[in-house]
Amino acid sequence: MTNLTLYDSFDWTKFLQEYWQNKSGIFNDVLKEPLATPEEIFEGLLKVAEQYYQDCDKPTTSNTIERSRDGEQRIADIKFLTKKSRIIGDLHEYMPTRNDSNLKNYSKRLENVFGGTYLLYITNFYYYMPDAWRRTCDFLKNLYQVAGLPADYTDLELFIGTYPLTAGGIHRDRSSNFHFVVDGQKTMYVWPRQEFWKEGTPEHLKSRKLDKMHLNEYLEHGIAYKGQKGDMIYWQPNYWHAGSSEVYSASLVIAVNMNGQLSKLFVQGINNILKNKTINKIPAIELNKTFAQEELPEDFVEANQKILSDDKLLNNIRLSWLQHASNFGFKYKLKPRETVNILDTSEVVFSAFSSILCLRENDKIAIVSNGHILSFNYCREVEKLIEIINLKESLKINEIFAKILVSNSNQSSTIEILRNVISKLYSIYSLEINTQS
Question: What is the pLDDT of residues 143-170, one digit of tens each?
Fold first, then answer.
């Protein structure tokens, strides 16, 4: 994975002091390389399309795609918007294919389909682009060291299209936004305040309801940031804003939602104890009852007893926190990749963004990295393996085993366990394995 490099002219200290959650601005020289190139974005879109074809027969009414009833997870929320409406229904004909060959050709096809104006908006785009995820983490590390991790979540969103105004018009959201123009030109209009109306606004505008879809009436009371390829536009939470791309553009937006509910970690910890148990019904309440003095449903009582009697609740909450922190605040963990053949001469290279964490509990050891939790039966050799990997030295498999293993009768079974751990860490992008024949 390619690391991110910032221009020396971008001063994080100055940004944090003057801009972070304080005011908006445009910055011309921030990243020497983009979070993702147009070529990488196109490849990511093909993966989104592949996932869409798998999920399209599992309809959902949710605007944000969470978990379906059968437990399957839909990650990316794909929105095709034209003029003032969202395309609902079958999206097959709008999805990218290899025949489009690149991002601009794909955009031109959509322009033809939608009559010249369209916006493609995808949330959680990083899920299909591990390199972009890593670069985003690389960018955010300086912010997090000062501001802390978001208590809610961070997202990497994709905007592509040709549109005079963001569908939905002038709006607000609760995230701090780092808007990177990857290709083309895009203008962001920002009204740098949480209240749209402000002293100095003409009375004829104040006297009526905000018309979110008619941008021109309000332009003189806001700020227009005209972004070119490579520029970053920043604005803070709850600022009114709208985007415009009169010509083709592609942008990646890092949305950082700092304020979140503390209870979420507890809920996840409880879910871990109950193993995400589902029930198909709960007893109905008699309609003529005034006082609800009935006993709790049996499933509720059983779950309550299990939670209260489980001494692992604090440990599960701790795992939830470590999972969130190791995933750098992102809502979803990266999709695991297929494993590779591991030879004794294979070279192991540390590639996790932060140290791989271990948490032992009795006869189990949990390994936490990149938002994933891997559980294994405890053995000292696994603990030693993680210690060696966290040194971030490039070592061959046989060199690692030589550092860990001592002569014992169970050496072959221990090697099998260690290979399994290494393989799982590779699948979640915590290690790279260079295999030499």
Answer: 998 898 898 899 999 999 999 888 777 8
